[in-house]
Design a protein that fits this description.
Keywords: DNA recombination
Domain Tyr recombinase: 1-99
Number of domains: 2
GO molecular function, one term: DNA binding
Pfam family, one: Phage_integrase
Organism: Sellimonas catena
């Protein structure tokens, strides 16, 4: 992977890039993800599932409202959206929050 590193990738601020230093299409990214899952012998996942997992894990790691706001910013969502979408998935987090307030 490091052999493929090229300063052109960084200069264009691309997170993902093809060998021609351009942004891959959404379909290309999806196809690559499917290939990776198949090679690994695991269930195929969508890009949305990866984002949801990432967001849920971030929310689980937060310990205060400031960190939740930071997580929302990182995800490109509002604080309210993060709370409504990801906070409900973790019952233990709710218990911990109530314990912290009490």
């Amino acid at each position: 992977m490091l052999e493929l590193y090229d300063t052109n990738y960084f200069e264009k601020d691309l997170i993902l890039a093809t060998q021609n230093h351009i942004s891959p299409t959404l379909q290309n990214i999806r196809n690559t993800l499917v290939k990776i899952c198949r090679r690994a012998g695991i269930q195929e996942y969508s890009l949305h599932a990866l984002r949801h997992t990432f967001a849920t894990n971030i929310v689980r790691k937060t310990t205060n409202m400031g960190e939740l706001k930071d997580a929302a910013e990182l995800l490109g969502d509002s604080y309210d959206v993060v709370i409504k979408t990801y906070f409900h998935t973790d019952s233990q987090k709710k218990v911990d929050l109530v314990d912290a307030i009490a």
